[in-house]
Design goal:
heterodimer, A: alpha/beta, six-stranded mixed sheet, 9 helices, 10 strands, about 40% helix, about 25% strand, globular, B: mainly alpha, MetI-like fold, about 80% helix, about 0% strand, binds adenosine-5'-triphosphate, binds magnesium ion
Chain lengths: ~240, ~220
C-alpha cells in the first residue's frame, strides 16, 4: 500500500532523512516513534508529498509521489492526514469542515456530503456539535472532528502525526479510542506517536527513528521484547517509565 | 480682522454634494480594484516563481516610492491618450474621472498588497498543509481556506487604508476635476470666500474620517484582537 524506498531529504546542508526504506501493507498499522527532531514528521509528510524529497521514491497505492507527472491533489485526496494541532478551518462550522473537501475536491453533492459528514460526526460521538465552530470545542473534540474530516474523503490509508501530543491528558483516550476502532476495522495506518499503550494494543509493526535514519523496523512483539539498538532501548525505558 | 461670511455655503450644497459623490465614487472603485489587484500582487510576491515575485516586488516598491500626486498627473496625461487610441474616443470626451480611478486603483494596490501579504502570512502554515492534505489545489486552498482567514485578520487595516484613500482623493484637484475638495475650492473662488469654503470642507473631511476611524476601532475591539 505504501512503499518508501531509499528516501533522503536535505534542508540546505542539513540531512533530515537518511536513506529511509520501509513497506506498509494494506490493513497494517505501523507506529513510528523516536526522539524529537529525528525526522518522524518529515517522513510522514513525504508520504503525501506535503514535503518534497531529493532522493528515493515513495509509492502509494501504485502511484509514485516523486513522479513529476503525478496529480498530487488527486493522490492526497485519497490519503487521510491528521495533524498534531488538528488544523480544522476556524472560519467554518464543524459541518462545513466536514463537507468542504467532499464537495470541492470530490465533487459530491451538498446533500450527500452533509449526510456523510454527519454520519461520521455521529461515529466520533459529536453529532450535537455540528453547527458549532472549531473554537467552541475542546482539543480532544477538535481532533475527533479532524479524524472524521479525513475519513469523509473515503481514504485508502490514514497518516497521523502525533495526534494526541497537543492534548490535555484527560482527552487523550477519547482520541485514541477512535483510532483503535479504526485499526480494528482494518484501516491502513501510519501513526507517529509516543503512546506505547496504543502501539501495544493495535500496532502490527513499530519503526524507531533516530537522526533521520530508520534504526529499527520490527514486529511489535519483537520491538517491545528486545529492541536491537541501544538507542531504542534507552528511548523505550525513558517513555515507558513516564 | 477678517469678517467671516458663511452665506455662500447653503446655496452651494447641491453642487458640493455632486463633488462628494465623485470623491466617494473614486474611493469605492479604488478600494475594490485595489484590493483585487493587491491580492493578485500579494500572491505573486509570495509565489515560488521568480519572475512573478520580482515583478510584484518591483511594482510595490515603485508605487510606494513615488508621490501619489505625481502618479495621478502621469495618469491624467497617459490614460486619456491610451483610451482614445484603444477605444477610438472623441478627443473631447472627459476621461479625467476614469484616469483618476485607474491612477488611484494602481497606486492603492501597492499598499493593499503589502497589507494582504502580511495577512496571508499570518495564517498558520498548518492550515495550508491541512487544505493540501484534503486534496485541494493551490487555488482552492487560497480561495477557501487562506484568504477568508487572512481578510478577517486584515479588516481593520484595510478600512484604515480606505480612510486614508478617501482623504487622498482630494489630490484630483490637480486635474481640475470637481471632487468634493475641488467643488469647495471653485465655489470659494467664485464667491471670494475661499477661507470659509476650505474651513467647511476640512470640517466635513474631519467628521467623516474621524467617525469612520472610530467605527474601525470599535470593530477591532469587538473582534477581541
Ligand atoms: N523547514 C525546515 N527547515 C530546516 N530544518 C527543518 C525544517 N523542518 C524541520 N527541520 C529540522 O528537521 C529535523 C526533523 O524535524 P521533524 O519535525 O521531522 O522531527 P520530528 O521527529 O517530527 O520531531 P518532533 O518529535 O519534535 O515532532 C529537525 O532537526 C528540525 O529542526
Ligand atoms: Mg514531529
Amino acid at each position: 500500500m505504501i512503499s518508501i524506498k531509499n528516501v533522503s531529504k536535505w534542508y540546505g546542508a542539513f540531512q533530515v532523512l537518511k536513506d529511509c526504506s520501509t513497506e506498509i501493507q494494506k490493513g497494517e498499522v505501523v507506529v513510528v516513534c523516536g526522539p524529537s527532531g529525528s525526522g518522524k514528521s518529515t517522513l510522514i509528510k513525504c508520504v503525501n508529498a506535503l514535503e518534497p524529497f531529493q532522493q528515493g521514491d515513495i509509492v502509494v497505492n501504485g502511484i509514485s509521489v516523486a513522479d513529476a507527472k503525478t496529480n498530487l491533489p488527486r493522490l492526497r485526496a485519497r490519503v487521510g492526514m491528521v495533524f498534531q494541532h488538528f488544523e480544522l478551518f476556524p472560519h467554518m462550522t464543524i459541518t462545513e469542515n466536514l463537507t468542504i473537501a467532499q464537495t470541492k475536491v470530490l465533487g459530491r453533492s451538498k446533500e450527500e456530503a452533509t449526510q456523510k459528514g454527519l454520519k461520521l460526526l455521529d461515529r466520533v460521538g459529536l453529532k450535537a456539535h455540528a453547527d458549532k465552530y472549531p473554537g467552541q470545542l475542546s482539543g480532544g473534540q477538535q481532533q475527533r472532528v479532524a479524524i472524521a474530516r479525513a475519513l469523509s474523503m473515503d481514504p485508502i490509508c490514514m497518516l497521523f502525526d502525533e495526534p494526541t501530543s497537543a492534548l490535555d491528558p484527560e482527552m487523550i483516550n477519547e482520541v485514541l479510542d477512535v483510532m483503535v476502532e479504526l485499526a480494528h476495522e482494518g484501516m491502513t495506518m501510519m501513526v507517529v506517536t509516543h503512546e506505547m499503550g496504543f502501539a501495544r494494543k493495535v500496532a502490527h509493526r513499530v519503526i524507531f527513528m533516530d537522526q533521520g535514519r530508520i534504526v529499527e523496523d520490527a514486529k511489535k512483539e519483537e520491538f517491545f521484547g528486545t529492541p536491537r539498538s541501544e538507542r531504542a532501548q534507552l528511548f523505550l525505558s525513558k517513555i515507558l517509565h513516564h | 480682522m477678517y469678517e467671516y461670511d458663511w452665506s455662500s455655503i447653503p446655496g452651494a450644497l447641491p453642487y458640493l454634494w455632486e463633488g462628494m459623490k465623485v470623491s466617494l465614487e473614486i474611493t469605492f472603485v479604488a478600494i475594490v480594484a485595489g484590493i483585487v489587484w493587491g491580492t493578485l500582487l500579494a500572491m505573486m510576491r509570495l509565489s515560488n516563481l521568480g519572475p512573478l515575485s520580482w515583478f510584484a516586488a518591483g511594482y510595490v516598491n515603485l508605487f510606494r516610492s513615488v508621490p501619489l500626486v505625481m502618479v495621478l498627473l502621469w495618469f491624467f496625461l497617459i490614460v486619456p491618450q491610451f483610451l482614445r487610441a484603444v477605444l477610438g474616443l472623441d478627443p473631447t470626451t472627459d476621461t479625467r474621472l476614469a484616469s483618476a480611478m485607474v491612477g488611484f486603483a494602481l497606486f492603492e494596490a501597492a499598499y493593499y498588497s503589502e497589507i494582504i501579504r502580511a495577512g496571508i502570512q499570518s495564517v498558520p502554515k498548518g492550515q495550508v498543509a491541512a487544505a493540501y492534505a484534503l486534496g485541494m489545489t493551490y487555488g482552492q486552498a487560497m480561495r477557501l481556506v487562506i484568504l477568508p482567514q487572512a481578510f478577517r485578520n486584515m479588516v481593520p487595516l484595510l478600512l484604515t487604508q480606505a480612510i486614508i484613500l478617501f482623504q487622498d482623493t482630494s489630490l484630483v484637484y490637480v486635474s481640475a476635476l470637481a471632487d468634493f475638495f475641488g467643488a469647495a475650492y471653485k465655489v470659494g473662488e467664485r464667491d471670494g470666500r475661499l477661507v470659509e469654503l476650505l474651513l467647511f470642507a476640512g470640517a466635513v473631511y474631519f467628521v467623516i474620517c474621524y467617525s469612520a476611524s472610530y467605527v474601525v476601532k470599535r470593530l477591532h475591539q469587538g473582534n477581541g484582537s
